[in-house]
């Protein structure tokens, strides 16, 4: 079993956290712009041509729901996109105190393996099946 430990972040990890924080804060601050621009975006070509939603169908509506504070509505539209979106916003805002307080990073020694790839594909497939069933 891998051992959990704390380690100091690298310079690149701190830079990435700063970019993540800036992107999350910008997404929230620019919400009025997103609301105006979203109706002008093209609809999903795959869905329009086949009648079947693509694995990312509803992501724009999900993002707008999250930016409006409607996380439950976002989950109903596209659960996986909602998880990613909430993680993006919450992680970005958590990066701010992490950077300011110089907190360490947890490290448990996990590595990407073929098992993780199978799990990721299964999660995307399950989400896609949900979209097909509900859209």
Notes on the structure:
By secondary structure, this protein is mainly alpha-helical. The chain is 68% helix and 4% strand. The protein is built from 7 helices and 2 strands. A two-stranded antiparallel sheet has the order 1-2. Helix 1 crosses helix 6, helix 4 (59-67) runs antiparallel to helix 5 and helix 4 packs across helix 6 (79-101). The longest helix has 23 residues, at 79-101. It starts with a strand and ends with a helix. The mean pLDDT is 94.
Provide keyphrases for this structure:
single chain, 135 residues, mainly alpha, two-stranded antiparallel sheet
Quick structural overview:
By secondary structure, the chain is mainly α. Helix content is 68%, strand content 4%.
């Amino acid at each position: 079993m891998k051992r959990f430990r704390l380690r100091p972040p690298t310079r690149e990890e701190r830079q990435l956290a700063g970019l993540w924080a800036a992107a999350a804060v910008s997404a929230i601050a620019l919400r009025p712009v997103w609301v105006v621009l979203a109706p002008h975006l093209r609809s999903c070509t795959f869905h329009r041509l086949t009648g079947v939603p693509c694995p990312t169908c509803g992501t724009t509506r999900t993002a707008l729901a999250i930016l409006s504070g409607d996380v439950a509505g976002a989950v109903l539209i596209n659960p996986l996109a909602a998880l990613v979106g909430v993680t993006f916003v919450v992680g970005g805002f958590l990066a701010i105190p992490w950077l300011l307080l110089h907190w360490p990073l947890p490290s448990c020694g996990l590595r990407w393996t073929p098992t993780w790839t199978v799990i990721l594909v299964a999660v995307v497939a399950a989400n896609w099946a949900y979209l097909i069933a509900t859209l």
